[in-house]
Amino acid sequence: MKINFLYYMEEDDSFVLAKNKHEIYGDKGYFQSMVRNKISSISKFFDEEVLLCDRIPKDKYILAFRSDCDGANVYTFLKNNSELINELSNGKCILMTFRTEGAVENYSNKTESMAIHGNSGWVKFCDEYKIPYKNITCFGPEFHITDYNFDIDIRFFNKWAASMFTISEKHSEILFKSSKIFLRPKYFYCVATSARKHRTELVMNLYKENLLDLGNITFFSEVFDDDKNHKEFMSRVGNEIKKLLPLGKDIKNIDPENDLPYISPSYFNNWVRVFNSYFYVVTGTLGQEDDKDKMIKYHWVEEKVWKAIVSFQPFIYFGNYKALEMLKTFGFKTFSPWIDESYENELTYEGRKKIIYGEIKRLCSMSREEIDKWYWEMEEILVHNHNRLGEYVIEEYDNLFNIFREKIRNLS
């Protein structure tokens, strides 16, 4: 028996059902075309096991919302649809939500939130409409590193690994192999659009140590008017740094005044700048938090670390506590002893920062010949990580589809 799939997309502040599988693939969501084109199991699953519904089916079904749907609007839509509410309540269907950037914990009451507008939780929603907690499953890019006690079923799915796998084309392997006969002009590569404490302080440190010119850096190329972190940063730095910002702005289509189609920097990799440097300084979103009170219970697994892997780059991961340990559980290798990775074990931001700054300075003090030799000594690890990414993403989708099968099987 095929899985009945009721898949909603949000268009112009209203919800519409996907009419065919190509609308599910589209250019957004967990099953977007650029992923499906490289992972045959996605098409195989939807072709052989899924019946896409254009109305509420008579038999049990999965009710799903595409990952770009606005959380507040999803709640409102459901509250105004008594038939869907009733079928969630009586166990005829299971609701699945797919988040791209945050099924974020609410530490005060241990519930999960859509984390788009406000902090309204699924638990309150279930309690209000007498929906069993087990009938809602929320997928998101948070990998939990401590036990959690959610009422709602929260599942990790590495959406960003899948997206970055799609930009790993044959030319990156060719660039990697052919670069062996050349010395690279820069030491490190670093990219981030939004200002955060650890990124702004990194810029100030690189300036202080006269290291800015040794890196290919693209920082703060897309700053929004309400970015409080960037305003605070600009109030702290001297005119010398202000004159440099944004650093290395290299994306033409980020300027709304030109006629080029917009491409999110998250899906962009400047291969020229990457392959002109030796290592990647990855500044994760959660790099500035302390973990001494064990408040950070998950890693937000975003795109930057996967960009380093598809680019055959060793990396320093300026993330939160035990970020490298997480990658190892996925089957990837890290770079000790070539990089001092003891920052991984530091519970405080200041502790991690001190070690990371020291490593960047140490590596940048090498001669060009020394850093080149250092890089190629890790060739086996770089190739392993690049190849492992493809294997890992296939495993992620296999696991996702197994959850679909399990959930529909367990419905009454």
Estimated radius of gyration: 23 Å
Query: What low-confidence regions span 5 or more consecutive residues with pLDDT below 50?
Result: 103-120
SS-based class: alpha/beta
The dominant shape is: elongated
Alpha plus pi helix count: 17
Strand share of the residues? 15-25%
CATH architecture of the largest domain: 3-Layer(aba) Sandwich
The percent range for helix content is 25-40%
Mean pLDDT: 83
The name of the CATH topology of the largest domain is: Rossmann fold
Largest sheet: 7 strands, mixed
Q: Specify the CATH class of the largest domain.
A: Alpha Beta
First-last Cα distance: 15 Å
Number of strands: 15
List the domain count as a whole number.
Answer: 2
Describe this structure in words.
By secondary structure, the chain is α/β, with parallel strands linked by helices. It has 2 domains: 3-157, no CATH class; 164-391, 3-Layer(aba) Sandwich (Rossmann fold). The protein has 17 helices and 15 strands. The chain has helices at residues 21-25, 33-36, 40-49, 71-79, 82-89, 122-129, 159-165, 170-178, 197-208, 228-236, 239-242, 271-274, 304-310, 323-329, 349-364, 368-376, 379-410, and strands at 3-11, 14-17, 50-52, 61-65, 93-98, 105-106, 111-112, 136-140, 142-144, 153-156, 188-192, 215-219, 279-283, 298-300, 315-318. Strands 1, 2, 3, 4, 5, 8 and 10 form a 7-stranded mixed beta sheet that branches.
